[in-house]
Amino acid sequence: MRASSFLLLVGATAAAIPCAAPAQARGRQSAAVPATSALLVPDRVWDGVASAPHSGWAVLVTGNKIIAAGPRGQISVPAGATTIDLPGTTLMPGLIDAHSHVLLHPYNESSWNDQVLHESLALRTARAVNHLRATLMAGFTTLRDLGTEGAGYADVGLKEAVNQGIIPGPRMFVVTRAIVATGAYGPAGFASEYANDIPQGGQEASGLEQVAQVVRDQIKHGADWVKIYADYRWGPNGETEPTFTLDELKEAVDIASTSGRPVTMHATTAEGMRRAVLAGVTTIEHGDGGTPEVFKMMADRGICLVPTLAAGDAVMQYNGWRKGVDPDPPSIVA
User: CA–CA separation, 102 vs 229, rounded Å?
Assistant: First the structure.
């Protein structure tokens, strides 16, 4: 193994989603089987705090928890622990992806409409199993998966399969179907007489009563977080406009918070972001059209932005932009 190689503490980190998240067990361990310990001894350890890796450090892992990390001579190693030498490597904590969709193709690989309308739930779930394994092997030990995009509650089952050791994958925080305003999401563009029969990529709601019912329904089905689309491309000419009223968003946040669950909102316009902030969300996704005023509101309230910088690049590619050949679109340059 080359000196430039990196190893990540797959399955051993106790990382939490930034900006707080509900507690969730990574796996199941029988009380009758004592946890074993291993001392990992690489060339270097990067702890995610210092700007450079530490030479001469080691990491002690017991069961699925990191017990100690520091200079090898200062770590108290329990009797019977296994020492694993990792020459030529740098050891670092597992990574966190705070915005994923494991039940989708990569954005530059397949049409979103085709996936929602033409691919079976079984096919999408089988592909997601591969995505989870690949994500774990890439060093990501925690995922916040923000919507099944028409695949129902499959994310809950995938999370349970990982937790039970049936399939390999990162620990997951899931939102199930996500919540969209009636008529605001997709697939769209079909004959009006069939509009109500087209499967949607999110769970629709309209008005305070329906918003409350849908939030509670997703919690019932296993949501760890609640995700809401505060704006989307539903203007008269496809412009991105706010979807839910501020009162509707507040209703959703109030109910989710009562249950102990945080709320995240998709918002790409300044007004959608402003409403999300005033509603009391924990994180805002994307934020492409954010203004200094909106970002200050977020900072004052401790609301995190998850910018998803790679998503816009990938979407432009499957919409026809040839990266490295065509001029960069304004949204990419910005």
Answer: 19
Verify that 117 and 104 share a domain, yes or no: yes
> Which residues fall within 8 angstroms of residue 298, CB to CB, at 6 or more apart?
273, 277, 284, 304, 305
Q: For 320, list phi and psi in degrees, rounded to 5.
A: 115, -15
For residue 66, how many C-alpha atoms fall within 13 Å in the half-sphere facing its CB?
19
Q: What share of the chain is helix, strand, coil (3-state, %, to 5)?
A: 30, 25, 45
List pLDDT tens digits, range 94-140: 999 999 999 999 887 888 999 999 999 999 999 999 999 999 999 99
State whether residue 330 is helix, strand or coil.
helix
Domain edge (last residue) among 51, 69, 92: 92
Cβ–Cβ contacts within 10 Å for residue 160, how many? 14
Backbone torsion region of residue 138, taken as left when φ is above 0, otherwise alpha when ψ lies between -120 and 50, otherwise beta: alpha
Same domain, 158 and 33: no
**Does the pLDDT at position 317 exceed 50?**
yes
What integer is the mean pLDDT of 217-231? 98
Q: Are residues 202 and 261 in the same domain?
A: yes
Same structural domain, 320 and 209: yes
Final residue of a domain: which of 29, 60, 92? 92
293: amino acid identity, one letter: E
> Residue 82 has which token pair?
């296994």
- The whole-number average pLDDT for the span 69-86 is 96
Distance CA 208, CA 108 (A): 37
Within the chain, where are the H helices? 112-118, 121-137, 154-163, 207-220, 246-258, 270-279, 292-301, 309-318, 330-333
Q: Judge whether 94 and 48 are in contact, CB under 8 Å.
A: no
Q: Which of these, 73, 174, 183, 90, lies nearest to 139 by C-alpha position?
A: 90
Three-state DSSP state, 135: helix
Q: Could you tell me if 198 and 307 lie in one domain?
A: yes
Q: How many C-beta atoms lie closer than 10 Å to residue 65's C-beta?
A: 12
**Domain that residue 81 falls in:** 5-92
CATH classification at residue 101: 3.20.20.140
